Amino acid sequence: MWDRLRGSRAAGGGRSAAAMAQRGEEGGERGPAEEGGEGEPRAGAERGPSGAAAPFQPPEGGFGWVVVFAAAWCNGSIFGIHNSFGIIYTMLQSDLGEDEKDPTLEFKTAWVGSLAMGMIFFCSPIVSIFTDRIGCRTTAALGAAIAFIGLLSSSFTKSLEVRYFTYGILFGCGSSFAFQPSLVILGHYFKRRLGLANGIVAGSSCLISVPLPFFLKMVGKAIGLAHTFQVLSALMLIQIFLSMTYRPLLPPSCDSQHDGQDKLGSRSVRQQCWAQMRKYFNLRVFRRKTYRIWAFGIATAVLGYFVPYMHLVKYVEKEFGETKNDWILPVCLGGMSGLGRLISGRTGDCIPGLKKIYLQVASFVLFGIMCMMIPQCRGFEGVIVICLFLGLCDGCFTTIMAPVAFELVGPMQASQAIGYLMGLMAVPMTAGTPIAGYFNDYFQNYHAGFYFAGVPPIIGGLVLSVVPLVHQRMLQKQRLDSGKDKMLTPEAVVNGELLPGCPASEAHM
């Protein structure tokens, strides 16, 4: 569901690529073929009539459409599996055997999918470093291979503890490493048509994620959970080969390791390590009070965010005895999420400045209310209606995240801001569903779990509503004190230190 963040990072990759092309020509030490990574020469590094370096121009198509298809498959398969975990969740419990009468079965089983989703966000800052160092193609292929191994190995065990590692850790980490390069590589091929490419990827991924719950329901009954994991691993196996299409036009370079070698040579080992850490982990975004409030609000809101995706299918089976059409619920969530992306994306373009954040406020508050209304439903049809609203809120929240980040910290730091935000979301996103599972075990029903899931989004939405007010107050105070609009003129930060897919060697351009 997080494939909607690709716009900001892909655009960042494009900007960094342009700067890298210009730097490579001005250096004059190596030719384009020598600086290419992964066996390809650098593209776009041509000189104009005056002899000056011409800015890099993406091809705006061509082989880029193949990359778009690969990115769509990546997003659809990865998040289709994660968002369809409600089906796998019921199969896991059936595979363990209901006769065990384990009073904590719901709590223990929930950790499998929760760990996998949480690892996507937890690994986000680390994946950015790998993308910078070894490139999009190698990182994505490595991640798809790890995800393939995780799903395949999950089919050879019935132990929950082992699946915590195989599905939760391996598949979750592999998903993160395979997913994030797809956010970056589009910026190598598109600039003027970047929005169109992002729209195609977001829309096309629904062709996989929407019918996948029905497919899992049908296949699971026919061949069982173990073979279902093997079938799902085939999606990741295909992604390994599709990742090879991420041919970087301007791949990352390792020049940064040599640029400051003389300067670092006079420092102690501790100082050198600290300098390298600061190069890759820039914490400047946390100096902004509005960003801290925004990040805290979202981290609070997502505590119960994944609960409906995991527990709804089991809830309707237990509450209404609906076992034949329960696959409709994740389909409604995925389909309406896609529609929500389109609606909120266009609506956000019409809302000026930081007022876009009120769309996130509305989506979180409505999401929380809908979660708390699930126990009030008296029929399966009512749950379907609630799923439509939940999917709409999901699409709205995630689409507006990147524009809000740009408004809070500026375009130069937006990618870093999103990366840290996703890292902060890892813990509450992981802990929410097991907590709801514990309530289910304790009260012997799902009502308390859904009431719990509705409270954090409402609280987080109320916290987010304060951000525009704090922003305006700080802006007025700075204007009175210094007469300078520091909030609208972010500090000069180089792309090479912040945006994934570009080297830190651009730091002193």
TrEMBL record:
Locate the compositionally biased regions of type Basic and acidic residues: 23-45
TM ranges? 63-89, 109-127, 134-152, 164-187, 194-216, 222-242, 291-307, 327-345, 357-376, 382-406, 418-439, 451-470
The record lists the catalysed reaction(s) as:
L-tryptophan(in) = L-tryptophan(out); 3,3',5-triiodo-L-thyronine(out) = 3,3',5-triiodo-L-thyronine(in); L-tyrosine(in) = L-tyrosine(out); L-phenylalanine(in) = L-phenylalanine(out)
Q: Does the keyword Nucleus apply?
A: no
**Gene Ontology biological process terms in this record:** amino acid import across plasma membrane; amino acid metabolic process; negative regulation of neural precursor cell proliferation; thyroid hormone metabolic process; thyroid hormone transport; transport across blood-brain barrier
Q: What are the start and end residues of every segment in region (Disordered)?
A: 1-54
The cross-references to Pfam families, in alphabetical order and at most eight, read: MFS_1
Can you tell me which residues the record assigns to a coiled coil?
none
GO-annotated molecular function: identical protein binding; L-phenylalanine transmembrane transporter activity; L-tryptophan transmembrane transporter activity; L-tyrosine transmembrane transporter activity; thyroid hormone transmembrane transporter activity
* Listed InterPro entries: MFS, MFS_trans_sf, Proton-linked_MCT
Intracellular or extracellular location(s): Basolateral cell membrane
What SUPFAM superfamilies does this protein's entry cite? MFS general substrate transporter
Please state the span of the N-terminal signal peptide per the UniProt entry: none
Spell out the family assignment given in the record's similarity comment: Belongs to the major facilitator superfamily. Monocarboxylate porter (TC 2.A.1.13) family.
State the name under which the record lists this protein.
Monocarboxylate transporter 10
